[in-house]
Amino acid sequence: MGSTFTELKARQRTERDNYPENMGLRVHRALSWLDRAEQEDDPDSRFIFLWIAFNAAYATEIDDRVHLNEQDTFSGFLRKLCDLDASKRLDELVWTAYSNAIRVLLDNPYVFSCFWDHQKGRLSEDQWKHSFDGAKKAANAALAQQNTPIVLSIVFSRIYTLRNQIIHGGATWNGSTNRDQIRDCVAILTDLVPVVIEVMMDNPGALWGEAGYPVV
Q1: Which of 40, 79, 110, 155 could cysteine-pair with 46, CB 3.0–4.6 Å?
Q2: Taking Cα atoms as reference points, which of 94, 84, 22 lies closest to residue 59?
Q3: Which residues of 88-107 are buried (b: 16+ CB within 10 A; e: fewer)?
Q4: What stretches of the chain show up as alpha helix (H) in DSSP?
Q5: Which pTM does this prediction carry?
Q6: Helix 5-15 crosses helix 21-38 at what angle (to 10 degrees)?
Q7: Which residues of 148-169 are buried (b: 16+ CB within 10 A; e: fewer)?
Q8: How many alpha carbons fall within 13 Å on the CB side of residue 49?
Q9: CA–CA distances in Å: residue 123 to residues 40, 101, 117, 154, 179
Q10: How far apart are CA 157 and CA 164, in angstroms?
């Protein structure tokens, strides 16, 4: 579906001298982690490397200064990408390549944060199930309206729940209980991350903001 690291890196080498510094740094870092992800056969590791690649593309220094909610940050980034995606590659991913994987992911309670709030005693069973049903209805409405930014934001909120579980030590490596969500999230990110990088390279003049942790 999407371009590979090798294809994107070859393009980046020919264009990088014309990239604004902050955007060029984002793309350079994101490509390095995409390269590592493509070399990885272990699904858990591949998921982590793909998330870092996505994080390298969208994260900004402003996150640390004003403590923006991370989901708000990447949701805004996804909306911007969709607006800039003249070739509608993100639409194609959502509506063609991953309509099934996305629907399966949205039906999986183990990547829904309110489910875990219920497990921790913060929400009742009725409360989390009501939230889960509401979120699925919102996602299905966005799918029916072909609202790519909303669908991607909902999908990434689920991927983010899995990211938190793994990065914070809340899962076992190669554990049997989370294989379905790992499989689906890796499948989505594997094709989506290269498209994210490609859209950025197509639009070097867009205001991408200051990259976090500048080279010093």
Answers
A1: 40
A2: 22
A3: ebbebbbeebbeebbeebbe
A4: 5-15, 21-38, 43-58, 62-66, 70-84, 89-92, 99-106, 113-119, 125-144, 148-167, 179-202
A5: 0.91
A6: 160
A7: bbbbbbbbbbbbbbbbebbeee
A8: 18
A9: 38, 28, 6, 20, 26
A10: 11
Per-residue pLDDT of the chain (216 residues; tens, 9 = 90+): 568 999 999 999 999 999 999 999 999 999 999 999 999 999 999 999 999 999 999 876 554 444 457 778 888 899 999 999 999 999 999 988 777 888 899 999 999 999 999 999 999 999 999 999 999 899 889 988 989 999 999 999 999 999 999 999 999 999 988 999 999 999 999 999 999 999 999 999 998 887 777 776
Domain parsing of the chain, residue ranges: 5-202
Q: How far apart are CA 48 and CA 169, in angstroms?
A: 12
* Lookup result for tokens 């938190």: 164
68-71's contacts with Cβ under 8 Å and 24+ in sequence apart are 70/160, 71/153, 71/156, 71/157, 71/160
Report yes or no: 57 and 30 within 8 Å, Cβ to Cβ.
yes
CA distances from 40 to 30, 36, 208 (A): 16, 7, 29
Helix 179-202 × helix 99-106 angle, to 10°: 130
pLDDT score at 1: 54
37 to each of 4, 34, 113, 125, 212, how far by Cα in Å?
A: 11, 5, 26, 37, 21
For 129, the token pair is 């199930």
Instruction: Provide the pLDDT for residue 41.
Output: 95
